């Protein structure tokens, strides 16, 4: 786009020049004759810019008269005091009343820094390679041979993890500097190259139980069993010399390890431990990247020794057990069970699950007398839930409930397995009616994904508006998406609720809801009962699934044709499954209890991330509304 050439401009130069008769300043240079103003009048240049919807800029410029007095320079407003100092203002303006349309400035020219990868490849890659090779030798520390700290012994050792620029020290100074950093990796200079060594080989011993003393030493140390203690840390798998407190001040050995933030693999003469830091790292990685325990452990083993890492995999089973215990205790801690008088023993079903704070919870986030709201306002306190099944999260027929019962049965999202399986076994022979809509596989072919598995997948009930799992509303499927499974999860999720209105989204709701109450009466299970007095349940089909149904369903079960549901689409579970599906790569090989513990922890992590993001999500949703309000 070509810009219009600017017309000639007039330079207005004001300076303070006292006029004896007028008592005011006079212009040093007069305005151009085209301005239309007298040369004795004092004027101020103004500019008004308007940006159109199409991006074009309209700029108007003009001159306004200045107010003057006998003892102050010209000002635009007479009610604002001005400095008596001389004024000099230079304007590169246009003639009064002239209007200019200008195009927006185009993008600036590209610079080398706009493509940092190409810049690095062309200018710095060789430097990086040379510096990496330089670190293979002594580098800056080739000019001395004795330890610069004590000067008593040869400087042969350096730490790979300390920020010291590869400084070489003697064995004694290296040990003294790592008494609080016993998991750092050490290298020894052998004359022409470095070789890997350990602080254990150098004689460093880790003393537990005496953190209260200045020296940290125990007068009666007791070595760990077998002198073969292994500690798994973020930096690798470390063989260490470990001493317990034997004088009695340190307490139990298990307590001594925990106070050093080391998780013992067993409670009787443990020989393996893991730092709290590495356990937390694995928990976060398993939720974010869906890595398995084996993949994470082998990474640590290779970090320690990439040539002989296979020998360190003997502690894999111990590490796997510690990760399960860590997840379980962290879940109990966050649920506040450590502050309860009855502790862990009386943990109630679903007590460890993080709840959706935006859903209605009587007694928590609802106003007084909410249940007496007028009929036309009850939608404000409605609970939206969505039901769905996932056939990716299956489990192979390995292990058993007897060998692997799990650590938190029914405490979070997966319902109590004993009560659930009793329900399934009792009504196993129930024959569900065929679909009156199109041929839904979930209705007519419920066993399509069950061959060769102990669990063909999982069913779940989600918060339909905020995509969070609900407590005690997840369970294993045995022969696909059968009504006896999905009924249990739905009623277990809403049983005992005092809410008055429910909106239920399910991709086969048109068939599933037909004899729902008759099936509930047939189950005769107190855990599934809900008081139906004054309650209403609306059954709908998710928006994406609805077009696959017959026309009658498209009219009766449409979110778009239903009052008081807003922009809810009912597809919340599908979004959650997309992130959960990679978990199947590791959970399908687990025993039943291990798998339940892992999924409970994962669903809690998902709800946690949703909760902390609700504020930002709400702000993003309100910004367009606030802009529209300000515009009008």
TrEMBL record:
<dbReference type="InterPro" id="IPR041457">
    <property type="entry name" value="CxC2_KDZ-assoc"/>
</dbReference>
<feature type="domain" description="CxC2-like cysteine cluster KDZ transposase-associated">
    <location>
        <begin position="199"/>
        <end position="307"/>
    </location>
</feature>
<feature type="compositionally biased region" description="Polar residues">
    <location>
        <begin position="23"/>
        <end position="34"/>
    </location>
</feature>
<feature type="region of interest" description="Disordered">
    <location>
        <begin position="1"/>
        <end position="34"/>
    </location>
</feature>
<dbReference type="Pfam" id="PF18803">
    <property type="entry name" value="CxC2"/>
</dbReference>
<dbReference type="Pfam" id="PF18758">
    <property type="entry name" value="KDZ"/>
</dbReference>
<dbReference type="InterPro" id="IPR040521">
    <property type="entry name" value="KDZ"/>
</dbReference>
<protein>
    <recommendedName>
        <fullName>CxC2-like cysteine cluster KDZ transposase-associated domain-containing protein</fullName>
    </recommendedName>
</protein>
């Amino acid at each position: 786009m070509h810009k219009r050439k600017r017309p000639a401009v007039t330079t207005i130069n004001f300076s303070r020049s006292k006029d004896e008769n007028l008592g005011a300043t006079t212009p040093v240079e007069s305005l151009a004759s085209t301005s239309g103003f007298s040369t004795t009048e004092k004027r101020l240049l103004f500019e008004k810019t308007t940006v159109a919807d199409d991006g074009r800029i309209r700029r108007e410029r003009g001159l306004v008269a200045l107010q003057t007095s006998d003892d102050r320079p010209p000002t635009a407003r007479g009610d604002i005091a001005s400095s008596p100092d001389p004024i000099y203002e230079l304007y590169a303006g246009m003639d009064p009343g002239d209007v200019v349309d200008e195009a927006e400035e185009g993008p600036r020219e590209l610079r080398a820094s706009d493509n940092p990868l190409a810049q690095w490849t062309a200018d710095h890659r060789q430097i990086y390679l040379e510096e990496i090779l330089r670190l293979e030798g002594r580098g800056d520390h080739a000019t001395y041979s004795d330890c610069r700290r004590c000067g008593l012994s040869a400087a042969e050792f350096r730490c790979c993890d300390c920020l010291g620029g590869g400084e070489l020290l003697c064995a004694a100074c290296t040990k003294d500097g790592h008494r609080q950093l016993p998991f750092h990796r050490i290298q020894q200079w052998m004359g022409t190259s470095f070789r890997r060594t350990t602080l254990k080989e150098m004689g460093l011993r880790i003393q537990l139980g005496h953190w209260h003393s200045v020296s940290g030493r125990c007068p009666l140390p007791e070595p760990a069993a077998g002198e073969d203690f292994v500690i798994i840390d973020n930096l690798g798998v470390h063989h260490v010399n470990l001493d317990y407190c034997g004088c009695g001040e340190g307490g139990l050995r298990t307590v001594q390890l925990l106070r050093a933030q080391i998780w013992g693999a067993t409670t009787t003469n443990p020989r393996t431990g893991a730092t709290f830091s590495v356990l937390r790292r694995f928990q976060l990685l398993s939720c974010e990247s869906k890595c398995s325990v084996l993949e994470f452990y082998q990474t640590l083993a290779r970090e320690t020794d990439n040539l002989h890492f296979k020998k360190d995999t003997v502690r894999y089973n111990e590490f796997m057990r510690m990760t399960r215990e860590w997840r379980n205790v962290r879940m109990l801690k966050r649920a506040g069970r450590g502050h309860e008088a009855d502790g862990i023993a009386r943990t109630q079903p679903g007590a460890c699950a993080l709840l959706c704070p935006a859903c209605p919870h009587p007694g928590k986030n609802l106003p007084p007398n909410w249940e007496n709201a007028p009929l036309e306002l009850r939608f404000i306190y409605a609970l939206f839930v969505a039901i769905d099944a996932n056939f990716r999260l299956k489990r192979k027929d390995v292990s058993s409930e007897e060998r692997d019962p799990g650590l938190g049965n029914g405490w979070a999202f997966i319902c109590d397995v004993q009560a659930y399986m009793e329900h399934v076994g009792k009504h196993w022979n129930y024959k569900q009616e065929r679909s009156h809509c199109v041929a839904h596989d979930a209705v007519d072919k419920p066993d399509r994904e069950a061959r060769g598995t102990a669990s063909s997948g999982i069913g779940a009930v989600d918060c339909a508006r905020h995509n969070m799992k609900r407590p005690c509303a997840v369970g294993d499927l045995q022969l696909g998406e059968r009504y006896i499974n999905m009924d249990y999860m739905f009623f277990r999720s809403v049983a005992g609720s005092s809410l008055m209105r429910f909106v239920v989204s399910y991709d086969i709701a048109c068939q599933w809801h037909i004899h729902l109450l008759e099936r509930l009466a047939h189950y005769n299970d107190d855990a599934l009962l809900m008081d139906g007095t004054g309650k209403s349940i609306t059954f709908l089909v998710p928006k994406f699934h609805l077009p696959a149904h017959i026309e009658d369903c498209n009219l009766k079960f449409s979110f778009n044709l239903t009052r008081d549901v807003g922009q809810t689409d009912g597809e919340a579970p599908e979004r959650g499954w997309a992130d959960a599906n990679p978990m199947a790569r590791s959970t399908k090989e687990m025993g039943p209890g291990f798998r339940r513990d892992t999924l409970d922890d994962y669903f809690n992590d998902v709800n946690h991330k949703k909760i902390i993001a609700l504020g930002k999500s709400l702000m993003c949703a309100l910004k367009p509304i606030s802009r529209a309000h300000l515009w009008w």
